[in-house]
Write a structure and sequence with these properties.
Protein name: Secreted protein
Helix content: 10-25%
Keywords: Signal
Order of helices and strands: HEHEEEEEEE
Shape: globular
Largest sheet: 4 strands, antiparallel
Structural class: alpha+beta
Signal peptide: 1-22
Length: 158
């Protein structure tokens, strides 16, 4: 009888971490109230072909860039920072145009050769990348680029 009680106790104790983990939230749990994700990519590299469409990001930019993602609602205002990049923003839906948002921003990106900054107001179409700001410097080792791109996506999408 005591042996059975020991086995039951061991079984119960082995379940405790699973029960405790089930109650702890994961990062995605916090997306419920904010159905959109603002993605900001930044890199000391070229983002698009000089003769290509501005929303067609180069595969090398997608591989080499850093990514800052945060959840937002369709009307939102906030600030995010990653160390090298900081951005303040305001997002508002465009009346009568689903998936389109007025995006006001101010940001700065510190690179190995200086600081790039920009601010303004632009139209974000959900799912499309838009260049916020960047720079192009020529030095003894060639041309150095920096770019900051942004897009708005659904929180369940990639």
């Amino acid at each position: 009888m005591q042996r059975i009680a020991s086995k039951i106790t061991l079984l119960f104790l082995s379940l405790i971490p699973s029960i405790a983990l089930a109650e702890n939230p994961v990062p995605g749990d916090y997306l419920a109230n904010k159905p959109l994700v603002l993605e900001v990519r930044y890199c000391e590299c070229l983002a698009t072909k000089t003769d290509g469409a501005p929303s067609d990001l180069l595969p090398s930019f997608l591989r080499e860039s850093s990514l800052l993602k945060f959840s937002v609602s369709s009307e939102d205002k906030g600030f995010a920072s990653s160390g090298d990049l900081s951005i303040g923003y305001e997002l508002k839906p465009v009346a009568g145009s689903p998936g389109q948002f007025q995006f006001n921003y101010s940001g700065s990106y510190t690179t190995s050769y200086g600081r790039s900054a920009g601010n303004g107001e632009l139209l974000l179409v959900q799912g499309q990348w838009v260049n916020l700001f960047g720079s192009r410097h020529k030095n003894e080792s060639g041309v150095q680029h920096s770019n900051v791109e942004v897009r708005l996506a659904e929180s369940g999408g990639s």
